[in-house]
Design a protein that fits this description.
The chain is an alpha+beta fold. Among the domains are: about 60 residues, Alpha-Beta Plaits (2-Layer Sandwich); about 60 residues, Arc Repressor Mutant, subunit A, CATH 1.10.10. It contains 9 helices and 4 strands, in the order E-H-E-E-H-E-H-H-H-H-H-H-H. It has a 4-stranded antiparallel β-sheet, sandwiched between helices. The N and C termini lie far apart (about 50 Å). About 25% of the residues are buried.
């Protein structure tokens, strides 16, 4: 049986879900971002307990098919941007449609209707969050980051970063250094 969970976007979330399943005596086959596959059928009481227990961690057990589809789309994008070593070289639309087994137009229309933004905007927001993360770790320079995240150029990445955050990547990096420096002086 498959269950879908909203806001399940990290490895820590997966650990929490596994713990909650164990508390309820449910045996899982797979716990992935946004989905759980369990061996047995879940009773209404178990479902309610799981819903309440997950809610305490900011996670939501889903039931609505459209919301489930949105979470699947988000999980594919988050996995692609945040947890893959390299972004796919094909169009994101083709990648998402292939991963989910649906026509991209259907996915895009459903996503836009429910979320109020396009899939492309959601991808850009996640890519910029990933850029911020990579800038903070200071392991890659901007050229390497733009290559890793499939930007056509450093200028394109910088323009998109400024459009979303209001800051240039270099200014963002300076702000973080200054902030961390101040914390170390305490």
């Amino acid at each position: 049986m498959l269950l879908y969970i909203k806001y399940m976007v990290s490895l820590r979330c997966k650990m929490v879900v596994k713990q909650e399943l164990q508390k309820l005596g449910l045996h899982y086959v797979n716990v992935d971002l946004g989905t759980i596959e369990i061996l047995e059928n879940i009773t209404d009481l178990q479902r309610e307990h799981l819903r309440n227990n997950l809610k305490a961690y900011g996670l939501v057990l889903l039931g609505d098919k459209r919301k489930i589809m949105i979470e699947k789309i988000k999980a594919v994008i988050i996995e692609m941007v945040h947890y893959s070593d390299e972004l796919p070289k094909v169009n994101y639309s083709d990648y998402i449609a292939e991963k989910l087994g649906y026509d991209y137009t259907y996915l895009a229309n459903t996503f836009s209707e429910v979320k109020g933004i396009t899939i492309q905007q959601f991808i850009i927001i996640n890519k910029i969050e990933r850029v911020k993360e990579l800038l903070l770790y200071n392991e890659l320079n901007l050229t390497e980051i733009s290559y890793k995240l499939n930007y056509s150029s450093v200028a394109h990445l910088s323009n998109q970063f400024k459009k979303i955050t209001g800051l240039t990547p270099s200014y963002y990096k300076k702000l973080k250094k200054k902030r961390f420096g101040n914390l170390e002086d305490l």
